[in-house]
Amino acid sequence: MREDNGAFVRPRGRAWGNDAQRAVLHAIAEDVAARTAHKVVAIEALRSDGFLEFVAIAGDDAARDTMLGKASPLELNHIHHLGDEIAGWRHIPSERLDDETRAWLDEYGHKPDAPASDLPDGWDPDDQMVRMLLNEDGELRGMLYLDEPLSGLRPTPESVEAINVEAGVLFEAVISIVERELYGEQVRMVTQARRAIENVRPGLGEEELLAALSEAMVEAMDVATVDVISEATVIAELEADRGEVTELMRRQWRRRGHVVVERQLTWSMQEESIETPPSLTRLLDTHGLGSGLLVPIGAGDDYLGTLAMGRAPDSPRWIASEIMAASVVAADIARLLLEARLMERERALNAELRATNDYRRDMVMTLAHELRNPVSVLWTNLELLTLEPDEDERAESVQAMDRAARRIEDMIEDLMALATVSDPERSTSRAPVDLSAMVGESCQFLAPTAALGGLEMHTHIIGGLVVEGELAGLQRLVTNLLSNALKYTPAGGRVDVRLAPDVVGGRDGVRLTCADTGIGIAEAELGDVFTPFFRSSRPEARRRPGTGLGLAITERVVTGHHGTVEVESVLGEGTTFAVWLPAEADQRER
User: Fold this and answer.
1) C-alpha span between 502 and 465 (Å, rounded)
2) Cα–Cα distance for residue pair 169/164, rounded to 1 Å
């Protein structure tokens, strides 16, 4: 919570350390007072949010009651600018204090109720004697204050050296206790978070895992919200600045950093603070939060997502142990996230293998079924040839055998064509092809078939349309589309063939449209019509002979020419196929 004067006060239940640690620091403060011959000694611990918290005060009950547990912003300017350096300490004489510094000390300090010394160079109640407690890496861990020297005199180099000799080991003890508490707090939070993570049901997919982790860690991390966000997660409030925020978190992962988001400033322990982007402020408002901690999740050089934690407006600021704990937890989440992705890939691969197996089985069954009929015709008529002396009957058997052999030959050609057009390594010769002439000739060739079937065939072909492509593949494409339209359209129906120029994506091309009024294709089957060996399950379609290879070949020919093929159909009303081909081959094929 925050007092009216702006200082952060941590409730006793959430104060720094525990009773035993505070008792030890109080004993150290009393020992320092005795060893250095000062009445009052105070110890502050530095929090990572930039605030100093009083954790022990010896020799002044009034100061202890007023200041213990209170935190103030870190401000060292007056110490550096106004104080005299003496053997690792800073002495600030009262006469150097300006109005701004006095106001600061009145707000965050405590002035003892004691008279000024009447000795020459005597101690003044406004004098300050401060030592910054630094660890081995030179990082500030706390502050030590001496007040009301029993001698009544201001410090001298000799008296300060004596203080260091007497109490130097205690300075290191304070630093060690503060660092152990920071580490212990981090370990406690990590342990709680890991226990929560262990309760998440194994075997979840990525999306389910992220949701389960978020829910499990809210209570463990003592925060208002926890969200485990993958790089692909869509957050409406961040869409305007998505690129900027993503790059920010990528940069933090590279430097193994973090981001603390507050309403005015966004900061980390490694970087200068910046003004909080509006999108992050909107995110805080949307969820009713006062601040947030963003820790990148990654593995190796890959940024995978973000661990985002939020706190209510009246909650304390983020401290170093919490940030470090979140970083450790983020590493655990990265492992789980990679495992979930691996599991999803395994599931997808297994599904693909099952689909491939099913496809192979269906392919074999389809081929066996399609070959059975013509083979049966061959065997039956071979037997009849040995039994029928009549020449006319023998001729009918020969004709039946011829039709069966041709059907087998057609299937073999389709299989070979599918293998050819599906081979990515095959080299093809491209040349100008008069598509107008090809379509016109194909329509004329199939006109008798349409007439025998009682169908009308209407054509609208713009002349002189040339594309650069493979002659054989394009011929098979046109023939397959026209043949299918005639095959699946009952007597009395109509087939419309249109060929016209069309520009797609600024590229000149030709569009071939073949529309019929036939039996149509069920909506659920439209996505499968270009799959090799696919046959509709509807009896009306099954009665027409075929291997299910024609449209698969057509789609591969179109793809090989860098074109597009689309299909629209209404069951019982008809089907329309539309193929667009570029007029010139792709530059990579030249």
Assistant:
1) 11
2) 8
